[in-house]
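Subgroup meeting minutes
Present: P.N., E.W., G.H.
Scribe: E.W.

1. P.N. recapped why we're keeping a running log of single-chain structure predictions: easier to compare across weeks, and new members can see raw inputs and outputs side by side.
2. G.H. added today's entry (276 aa).
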Amino acid sequence: GTPVFLMHGFPYDIHAYAEVAPLLAQAGCRVIVPYLRGYGPTAFLSPVTPRSGEQAALGADLLALMDALAIPQALLAGYDWGGRAACVVAALWPERCKGLVSFNSYNIQNIAQALVPDSPDNEHRLWYQYYFHSERGRAGLEKDRRAVTHLLWKQWSPTWTFSEDTFEKSARAFDNPDFVEVVIHSYRHRFGLVKGDPAYAEIEARLATQPPITVPTITFDGADDGVRQPSSTGPHAQRFTGTRSHRVVPGVGHNMPQEVPAVFARAVLELLTPQR
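Output recorded in log:
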């Protein structure tokens, strides 16, 4: 069937798509749900490879996986870090992307503008990012990964009632020995506080131009997202130069595919239907 990559975010894992994947498979799709680098059983082949969490690395990983599986083109869907990986591939290699489902719209970071202050209401939502900029934050995440990530789950999806078992299924992925380093690098690199992996410098340079996304796209925001407030306009909207439909989902926080799996799956199938 049509290949579909479902990309999870931070601090989540492949269980975010536990109910989405079967719906797509039943509709005839070939569904691939990979762990991001630093999560679950992923491992770096060399001890000297930088444990980079930068956006170029995430996009390059997705592209490399498509190449390894000999998949020339696929529909890409994701949110948070995973949505960023999908946006990177859709923007820079549109010929590899049949369509895009992206939570929080255009998810490519504008690092050059990262130190421009936002409104106080938006700034306070990013406390965890500023926390990770410090060595105290690194130590705090290393000391108790579950406590930090559990708090973020609650703050980011305030209307989602998840069980402790549901959280623990995903939290096991954070026990990866590279998890902390990848996370810390991600949140420092996006503010220009640390250098990226030189292997991805060319990709980062292309992303710095804020390239448009030209493929057919459905974007979502959660009405109750505790990280990013819904917005259908502004500079992000202007980055989509192809067909785009934007929707705000009531009662949904930041972990959309796990909160409303049927809605997420329908969006994927909606993009695929004209191509069947």
